[in-house]
Structures are given as C-alpha cells and as structure tokens.
Amino acid sequence: MSLKVELSEKVYWLGFNDRRKHLFENQWPLEKGVTYNAYLIDDEKTALIDTAEAPFSGDLVAWIKDLLGEKTLDYLVINHMEPDHSGAIKEVVNEFPDVILVGNRKTFPILEGFYGITKNIHEVAEGDTLSLGNHVLQFFMIPMVHWPESMVTYEINNKILFSNDAFGSFGTLNGGVFDDEVDDLTCFNEEIRRYYSNIVGKYGAQVQKALAKLETLTIKLIAPSHGMIWRSKIPYIVEKYHNWSTHLGEAGVVVVFGSMYGNTEKMADYIARFLIEAGVKHVRVHDTSKTHSSYIINDIWKFKGVIMGSSAYNGGIFPPMAHLLSDLEHYGLRDRYLGIFGSSSWGGGGVRAINKFAETIKWEIVGEQVEARCAPNESDIDRCRNIANAMAARLLEI
Ligand code: FEO
To answer: In the CATH scheme, what is the code of domain 250-395?
Structure first.
C-alpha cells in the first residue's frame, strides 16, 4: 500500500524523502535531505508529471500501479530532464510501454542522450493543452529555470501549477506536505533560499521572465518537484522569488574570512562586534575553511552587506576564500556593499585578490580596507572599527 496524498480530486503527490544522499548533484551538502516530487492525475486518461531519482524507480512504479489498479499510464509529462526528476523514466517506460512522453523540442534530445528513448513522444509548445477528461494540462516554457528544456505544467480546471524546480527547496518533509502543515517555515526558509541561490540563482533574469508569465495565471496550488506544496502562502513564496531574483538584499552583514593561523579570524571577530555596536541587527560570521560555500552564499544572497577577509597564501589568496569568490563570480550576484580586510604575512595577496574580485563583480566598496602585517596591531583593529562603522552607515541608507 502506498502513502496517498490527494492535492485535489484525483491528483496525487508521489513524493520521496531522500535522507541517504549526502551531496545533491554531488556537491551541495544535504544535512536535511531532499525530496523528489512526482504527481499523478487519474482521469479518463492518466498522467504522471515527472519522476524521481533512479534509486526510487521501483517504489515509484509500484506506487503508480497501486493508485491506478487495472488502468494503465497514458502520459508521462517531462517538465525537466535533470536526472533527479528523470531518473525513473526508463523504468516507467518499461512498465508502461505504450506511455506517451510529453515534452518540448529541447526535451527529447536530452531524453535520447540520457536514456536512449526516441519513441512514443509528443512534442508541446508554449500554451499548448492536453485534455485528460476533467483535467486539462497546459504547458509553459521556463528556459534556464533551471535547464534549457525546463517547462511547467498548469492544470487549468483545478488551477494547479506543477512548477518543476521553481519554488522548490532542500529538506525532507516531516509528514507535512502542504505549507500550512509545516510547523517551522522559518527554519525551512534557510533551505528554500539555499536551494534557490545555489541551484537557480545564476538565472535571475530568466526567473523574472518566468514569474511574469505565471502572473497571468490564477494559481491555487504550486506543486514543485522538491519540497513542500504551496497553497496557503503562495504570495509569500512568489514575493521571495521576486526579491531573490532581483538580488534585493536585507539590512544585515555577512563577515566571511579565510584564516591560516587565526589573525584574519581575529579581525573578523572584531568587525562583527563593532557592527553590532554600530547598530547592525543581523550579523553572520563564516569561516570558509569550515562552512560549505553553499551556506555562505545563502547568507550573502539574503544580506546586503558583505565584509570579506583573507590571509595570504603563497603570494596569493587563501584557497578556501578563492573558492568562495569563484562561486560568487559564477552566480553573478549583484548590488552588494563590500568591506575588505586581511593579513599579509611575508608576501600578501589575499586583500589584493579580493579587490580584483570586487572589480569583476562590481560591488560597491565601503570603508577603507585594512591589511595587517602578520598579526593585527592596535591601529589595524581601529581600522576594522572604521570598516564596520562605514558599513553600518551605508546600510542605514537603504
Ligand atoms: Fe531538481 Fe534542475 O533539478
């Protein structure tokens, strides 16, 4: 018997909590796991919307058979070909050999590439519809949210948006499937934004286009491919997507450092304290050697102020800090205020590299930077206070 969660009449969530995987896409830590959500519509014609990662293939097929009984599966709608959602396609096709695979023109080359499947395909384009009986599906393209072939499926009569990766999150579900069944949305928010910033964040302009398109629809339920289903807080999550995709930052500061022997770290701690003394309410301190960049980027996506410090390393920047800078350049996050500090030991290079990063990413430099020679002296600490005060003053202006 399968766990059956009905979204609306004859529309079912078939979600899988993955608590075993350690790294999503083999790079993002999954301390709280992740879900893969598939959906089944049982009408005169039956349709599955997306699948799950390959290890869940057997469970997914068993679930579909349990729900459909004697009926067969008529359609498999492929909103996205990334293997976390397409991994069970082959097993679904093996089990239901006549199933029609629904996708757009960019879907099928990837389908063939990953799984060698070329038959029983039905190509749809922007705005096309597919009737299942009482349920009618309509398709909208959302390229690069977050692959070129990404699309969403809208069920017209019940106003359900199967939103693919959009509005999804890291984190498994603790029994609550709908947003109003999740008791700690604040906690979940961190994983929603970490998912957005690290997986979708690079494509803010495309997210804006997708949001503009979806604003023309009346939506009662948003059913993403990861995380909870939105029904009570749809305006809330849509507003978050607007803010994140336009790189809006809240009043707060992320102090992030790379430190070999604790001298740059000491300066970071002074700066964090001076920020609080200057009236900044939200301050987060991160050590790039300790914390995975996805968590640091998550905080930088949230807050407008960033103060970065690095020790020198072989005449350049400390490698874990270099990794973070490279990630941030890759995502192209805009419109942040940047303070710079560090320590030089025998050669310097850390502060120089952060300045080069600032030029590339075009963030506004705030305050006068400080580079201590080896360990910070009293004058260096005074200059750390100046950076904190300048950042606090700049934040007050927003
Ligand atoms: Fe959840 Fe882009 O895959």
So the answer is: 3.40.50.360
